[in-house]
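Q: Here's a chain of 97 amino acids. Please give me its 3D structure as tokens.
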Amino acid sequence: MSSASHPKASSGALTLGALGAVLLGQGDLTQAKRLFEQHLAAGRESGMRVLVALAESELGDLALAQGDLAAARRHHEQALAIQMEIESKLQGAQSRL
């Protein structure tokens, strides 16, 4: 499924992430994790790498809240790698204009 043909996929994924962030802020780590994992799955399914990066970052924040520094680092490094990949592609596209 592509985000162009299914615009609701990206808004649904963002909603999952936003709800997860609220639950994380309220200390409901179990439900926050469930929503962040759904956000990640939706991002992967839609093919929108930016959604995957956001979900990885959210999972990193959750891991940090749980005191799992190794998992927090792993998720945040994955998010950063995706963001750098996206930026590189954007710069390449801009240079061709």
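Q: Can you summarize the key feature?
A: The longest helix spans residues 69-95.
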